[in-house]
């Protein structure tokens, strides 16, 4: 009896289990990442062609006045830009993570399902055929084009007994993207107006987008976010291979379809709103896996915070390096993301899915 009591007491005196310690570290890391996101959001409201101190920013947010110049700058210009960067970054980060998990391809990005080219072709059609040249006007064309291109790619890849395997998805995406790219070039060669408008959209930018654009894409981003965050267990199963996933009782076809829906909703919305921004959806999942490991439940959660932090930070950097002008965020993400991705690729364990 005494020995049993002694053993129990010794066990009770031990520290928390490794699983609990890991979960605690992950929660602390997530809290730190959330604080970093809050900091870059505040900087986004403060930094620009006119610097505004935190007290004035807070006053403009709490006491909005249309006759006050600072209120117009903070609320009407920078707040909408910051919120759009927040939700677009969230969408790109989750979409990139789901893409890489679905295709088991560490180099997967929005182009793998033809999303960028589908959205670009739809924007070209909206401009050249319907004469729509405003962002709020062609945002739904871009979303529809992105969704339609992704559906075509998935349908082509699904032909055959194996269904939409990762290799077939990549090949179908490359083929559809090449075809859409040819159509875009053909239209642009005959329309100077389309060429000028598409050039501004394709560079990727948070500037010039107001609350009207944000409200249009917010419902689809919210729905896509819910679907993506619910796919953690499914992506963990797909990472083990189709046969293992089926052996564990997972419905592989249904999981892939749900992943495709999430990608279309998230990537289509973000691309339609801010243009095809590179490297965010490509780099962020690798960084998240480096921090939390291979569990997609945590990778998705951290990607949802890392991605908007990166996008908004790049937008702030673009306002500073070319002061009093600015570089568009799509240019800055490419300059920042390329070296980071090269460093990640050199570590083999970070790109193995």
From TrEMBL:
One of its GO terms (cellular component) is plasma membrane. Gene3D superfamilies: ABC transporter involved in vitamin B12 uptake, BtuC. It is found in: Cell membrane. The chain crosses the membrane at residues 26-47, 79-99, 111-132, 138-157, 169-193, 213-236, 257-284, 296-317, 329-346. GO terms for molecular function: transmembrane transporter activity. CDD domains: TM_ABC_iron-siderophores_like. Pfam families: FecCD (PF01032). SUPFAM superfamilies: ABC transporter involved in vitamin B12 uptake, BtuC. GO terms for biological process: siderophore-iron import into cell. Keywords: Cell membrane, Membrane, Transmembrane, Transmembrane helix, Transport. It is a multi-pass membrane protein. Belongs to the binding-protein-dependent transport system permease family. FecCD subfamily. This is Iron ABC transporter permease. It comes from Leifsonia poae. The lineage of its organism: Bacteria, Bacillati, Actinomycetota, Actinomycetes, Micrococcales.
């Amino acid at each position: 009896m005494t020995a049993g009591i002694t053993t129990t007491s010794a066990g009770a005196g031990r520290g928390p289990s490794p699983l609990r310690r890991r979960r605690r570290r992950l929660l602390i890391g997530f809290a730190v990442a959330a604080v970093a996101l809050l900091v870059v959001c505040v900087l986004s409201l403060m930094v620009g062609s006119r610097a505004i101190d935190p007290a004035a920013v807070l006053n403009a947010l709490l006491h909005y006045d249309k006759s006050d110049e600072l209120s117009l700058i903070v609320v009407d210009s920078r707040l909408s830009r910051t919120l759009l960067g927040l939700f677009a970054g969230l969408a790109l980060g989750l979409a990139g993570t789901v893409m890489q998990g679905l295709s088991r391809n560490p180099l997967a990005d929005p182009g793998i399902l033809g999303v960028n080219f589908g959205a670009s072709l739809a924007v070209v059609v909206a401009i050249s055929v319907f004469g729509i040249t405003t962002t709020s006007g062609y945002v739904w064309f871009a979303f529809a084009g992105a969704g339609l291109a992704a559906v075509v790619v998935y349908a082509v890849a699904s032909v055959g007994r194996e269904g939409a395997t990762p290799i077939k998805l990549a090949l179908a995406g490359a083929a559809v993207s090449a075809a859409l790219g040819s159509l875009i070039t053909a239209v642009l060669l005959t329309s100077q107006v389309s060429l000028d408008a598409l050039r501004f959209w394709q560079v990727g930018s948070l500037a010039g987008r107001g609350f009207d654009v944000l409200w249009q894409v917010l419902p689809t981003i919210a729905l896509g976010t819910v679907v993506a965050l619910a796919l953690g267990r499914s992506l963990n199963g797909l990472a083990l291979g189709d046969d293992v996933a089926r052996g564990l009782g997972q419905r592989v076809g249904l999981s892939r379809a749900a992943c495709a829906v999430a990608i279309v909703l998230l990537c289509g919305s973000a691309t339609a709103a801010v243009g095809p921004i590179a490297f965010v959806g490509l780099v962020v999942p690798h960084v998240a896996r480096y921090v939390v490991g291979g569990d997609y439940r945590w990778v998705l959660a951290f990607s949802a915070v890392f991605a908007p932090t990166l996008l908004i930070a790049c937008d702030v950097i673009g306002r500073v390096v070319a002061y009093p002008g600015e570089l568009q965020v799509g240019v800055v993400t490419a300059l920042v993301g390329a070296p980071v991705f090269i460093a990640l690729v050199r570590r083999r364990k970070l790109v193995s899915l």
